[in-house]
Design brief:
The chain is α/β, with parallel strands linked by helices. It has twelve helices and six strands. It has helices at residues 10-21, 42-48, 65-77, 93-103, 105-113, 133-141, 183-192, 202-216, 218-225, 234-245, 256-268, 280-284; strands at residues 26-32, 53-58, 81-84, 121-127, 160-162, 167-170. The chain binds guanosine-5'-diphosphate. Guanosine-5'-diphosphate binds next to helix 6.
């Protein structure tokens, strides 16, 4: 699949990251619960080193509950503390706050033993674009401080956000792009909106996703798009679904671009249902 990437700010971001890591007690790494592994940046993990990290599987409201549970268990087996949340509706955020405090308890106790009052906990929120960093920061701080957007790549500057409580949050110091993985990885990132639509061959992406979802979530696809026969090529599924929606150009030609764009919107917005696009079992095989 031909997708152009612009990892322009990466080197600078990684340098900034190193500086900021010195100032924080803990890192919250955000990823997309629908594609946890494909939405992580391996460079971030390298830079973080021994610093405590809480991996937050955000947008859990859009992902398959059972699969998200499997991921959390899988990460636990890898020695990674992971939790899920829906930061848009602020569900799961109190648990995250508590876990952050729990993970830094030793530092807090040490300061107290020396008779010092521990300053607010300093947390850096980092992750690839569109994994909900700003929404999570707003949710954790209880106010609208970080800029959110439904287009990737909006947070660019660095700022400390005081929550008025026991936390100080550091917005991501820049753009961390997902790893330049396989076509399958790119497809998953495209499906969840981590890659700008302008860069996507939208119809090709839609056709590939229809095949993938027809295998993993046949009932959801069948019901929503009134497709009876699912064992077909992506192009055939796309044409059939487009015809059933009645998206036609003048002259009767199918308007597959319109359908594909609409399909991606519906998928990203959770309208098709709760869908996870990768599972721990695939990583292990
Ligand atoms: P950032 O680029 O990582 O800072 O991501 P944003 O916070 O700007 O969020 C990107 C998009 O995802 C926005 O449209 C948010 O409203 C949406 N979003 C963020 N968190 C969640 C969530 O937990 N659930 C859902 N459904 N949408 C979310």
């Amino acid at each position: 699949m031909d997708i152009n990437w612009f990892p322009g700010h990466m080197a600078k971001t990684l340098r900034q990251l190193k500086d900021f890591l010195k100032q924080v007690d803990l890192v919250i790494e955000t990823c997309d619960a629908r594609i946890p592994e494909s939405s992580r940046n391996p460079e971030l993990q390298k830079q973080i080193g021994k610093m405590p990290v809480l991996l937050v599987l955000n947008k859990a409201d859009l992902a398959d509950k059972t699969v998200t549970r499997q991921w959390i268990e899988w990460y636990r087996e890898q020695g990674i503390k992971a939790m899920s949340c829906d930061s848009l509706r602020r569900s799961g955020l109190n648990e995250i706050k508590r876990e952050c405090q729990n993970m830094t308890k030793d530092k807090y106790e040490k300061a107290r033993a020396r008779g010092r009052l521990f300053r607010p906990l300093r947390i850096m929120v980092a992750g690839i674009p569109n994994t909900g960093k700003s929404t999570l920061i707003n949710g954790l701080s209880g106010k609208k401080v970080a800029k959110t957007a439904d287009k990737p790549g909006v947070t660019r500057s660095i700022s400390w956000i005081r929550t008025g409580g026991h936390l100080e949050l550091l917005d991501s110091p820049g753009l961390l792009w997902p790893k330049l993985g396989s076509d399958e990885d790119k497809l998953k990132l495209a499906a969840t909106g981590a890659i700008k639509d302008e860069l996507l061959p939208v119809e090709e992406v839609c056709a590939l996703l229809l095949v993938k979802l027809a295998k993993q979530y046949p009932d959801l696809i069948r019901n929503r798009y009134r497709l009876e026969e699912l064992d077909r090529t992506g192009e055939e599924l796309l044409d059939d679904a487009c015809r059933k929606r009645g998206y036609l150009l003048s002259g009767g030609k199918l308007d597959t671009l319109r359908f594909a764009t609409q399909f991606l919107d519906e998928l990203r917005g959770g309208k098709i249902g709760r869908i996870s696009l990768e599972q721990p079992a695939e990583i292990m095989s």
